[in-house]
Design brief:
73% helix; mainly alpha
Length: 295
């Protein structure tokens, strides 16, 4: 086979692979949305769930999903980006750096159920907190940190070296160069890493089963005191997220409309991830244009 024929074969194979991936994704999304959209209503989104009666909603689970995501990203992003900056700009090549990089890769490959068991030991048993939102967020931070560190490190290393050297040649300090030159240029890739981490938080159930619990107490949405036991903002209350709710309904549900609730919850979860990703990319593009003065 000559080189031109080999090139055409390779192109055809890669296009076929891309089409298969798109077809699988489209089929999966179509199945979830076709079966779930018909069960979504204002009543479904604004009504608390029921363990026995039909007609329950997902109000508390939906709020808990976004709240756990918010708390997790508040912890994950600064630590992950800081770790990426250290690995890209300050860590010197050697055994120590290689060991840190190996630990990050091992941590990234751990199953979520193992992270959940670790969270159960550290953030539930040893701290005495019980099942809490903060425990779940810390477990998910352990889960997502390797992704954020690796993506941030790669993003910082991909910034053209000329920009950094030109800044240092002007007498600007290393930290000021990182803050004003490197991070704004690396921002789109770091944002992609943050969106990937957020998607994992939305869909994660195993780690949260052991840390945030499978139930939600009575919540008063007029009480915004974070220290109140009935406040939705209380970090030390158990919180069942949407992914955990789908698992619980499918495996332990006693309500007559188990299938409807599971299908509707799955569609809401997919739409939430989609809307979050689109809004995050729009906001990230806006911030990137502002800090880099690009159009």
């Amino acid at each position: 086979m000559n080189s031109k024929a080999a090139d055409r074969v390779a192109t055809g194979v890669f296009i076929a692979i891309a089409l298969v991936i798109v077809a699988i994704l489209a089929g999966l999304l179509s199945f979830i949305l076709i079966n779930g959209l018909k069960h979504i209503s204002i009543h479904f989104l604004t009504t608390p769930s029921s363990n026995l009666l039909a007609g329950g909603g997902i109000r508390d689970q939906l709020f808990n999903s976004f709240y756990v995501l918010f708390v997790t990203m508040i912890i994950t992003v600064p630590i992950g980006v800081g770790g990426g900056i250290y690995m890209a700009e300050y860590a010197k090549p050697g055994k120590l750096t290689n060991s840190i990089r190996s630990c990050i890769e091992v941590l990234a490959s751990l199953p979520s159920i193992v992270i959940g068991m670790f969270g159960l030991l550290m953030f539930v048993t040893l701290t005495g907190w019980g099942y809490t939102i903060i425990g779940g967020a810390l477990a998910l931070t352990v889960f997502n940190l390797p992704v954020m560190v690796r993506v941030s490190e790669d993003a910082i290393r991909s910034v053209p070296r000329d920009q950094k050297e030109a800044s240092l040649a002007l007498g600007i300090t290393h930290w000021h160069t990182i803050k004003t030159i490197i991070l704004p240029s690396a921002f789109p890739t770091i944002l992609t890493g943050a969106i990937l981490a957020a998607g994992r938080v939305f869909g994660e159930a195993a780690a949260l089963l052991f840390t945030a619990g499978q139930s939600t107490g009575r919540l008063d949405y007029t009480d915004w005191n974070p220290l109140s036991p009935t406040s939705p903002l209380n970090l030390f209350r158990p919180a069942e997220t949407l992914a955990v709710h789908i698992w619980a309904v499918n495996t332990q549900g006693l309500i007559p409309d188990v299938k409807d609730v599971a299908n509707g919850s799955s569609a809401v979860l997919v739409l939430s991830v989609l809307i979050f990703n689109l809004m995050a990319r729009w906001l990230g593009s806006l911030i990137h244009r502002k800090v880099t003065a690009t159009k």
